Amino acid sequence: MMSKVWNYYAGPCMLPDEVMDEAQRDFRNFANTGMGLVEISHRSAEFDKVAKDAEALLRELLNVPSNYKIIFEQGGGRGQFAAIPMNLLSENGTADYFVTGHWSRCAYKECAEKYGNAVLHECSYQDESGVWHVDYSKMTVSENSEYCYICLNETVNGIESFTLPDTKGVPLIADMSSDIMTRPIDVSKFGAIIFGLQKNVGPSGMTITIVREDLLGKARKYCPSILDWSVLSKFDSMYNTPCTFAWYMAYLNFKWIKNLGGVEELERRNIKKSKMLYDYIDSSDFYISKIAANDRSRVNCVFTLKDESLNDEFLKLSKAKGLIGLKGHKVLGGMRASIYNAMPIEGVQILVDFLKEFAASHS
Ligand SMILES: *Cc1c(COP(=O)(O)O)cnc(C)c1O
């Protein structure tokens, strides 16, 4: 047996034990069919039930109104960075991108460099003391804007937005890849929400789009059918062979979330976990968070060591103790602890204990 490790990677990331155990049982004999989970046809009655139940659970957990379609697809968050303009932006239209970090900037670039008129609004800034803030109040919505784009949780930067910009009726399109189901949201405030499974609700290999019906049917002629939301929706997300494994894993995760009390309970846990970590960081003079308290991500805790020459030693020792994946994203450096839905409070306590111990032995 391997010894227990704590996985703080940003994604793919740890999944709940119950989910992993159930998937392991089904892997060789799925729903008593005598066929394995990854061997069964997406057209079989057994898989069809999983597909439909996953959608129903998602609708229930997020309270998705009936005038929204849910699409299960491939291509990841990056695929949707292209799909969004190809589905929503007309040849002469404008899209407003409210950029708060790495991923919203990537989405802006994809649109601006390939598909049309995208306007960049910088919505995060660093104050005189180097602390980052989110501010949507100064942005404007362009005259002929066809959608406004935001990323609610910037996975790389560790910045999360808890309020939405006022888009004056223009559809708001949100990337919620790393914060979906970490807290309740009002879906009716969005034109579309996109997210990959691999941060809070499953493995990599599947992306979900929740889109208001009236936004369908506007795709550009050259939009590949496989990225056209209307086509995918018409075929109940089985226009091509879907990633059955990831779809099934999403189903198990949604079931797990429902059983523990839904996204309200997850929010309670995520507040508690992140507070524990940030409270310690704020109390120490060894570690620093450069993000304003109100704008800190509850799931990606980005921090630095005051003495960055200790970075390698920190990563080496943490790994030796079974604390894995604490290195920050390459564009930012520093450290990042991702504590998504599946991370129990115990995993955060163990991390805080390690931070204390390392600080004590290196000050
Ligand atoms: C991980 C992530 C992405 C990229 O997703 P891929 O599936 O790798 O394309 C996009 N946006 C956010 C917010 C992410 O966390």
From TrEMBL:
It is an enzyme of class 2 (transferase). The modification N6-(pyridoxal phosphate)lysine is found at residue 199. Its cofactor is pyridoxal 5'-phosphate. Its EC number is 2.6.1.52. Its main location: cytoplasm. Binds 1 pyridoxal phosphate per subunit. Catalyzes the reversible conversion of 3-phosphohydroxypyruvate to phosphoserine and of 3-hydroxy-2-oxo-4-phosphonooxybutanoate to phosphohydroxythreonine. Homodimer. Belongs to the class-V pyridoxal-phosphate-dependent aminotransferase family. SerC subfamily. This is Phosphoserine aminotransferase.
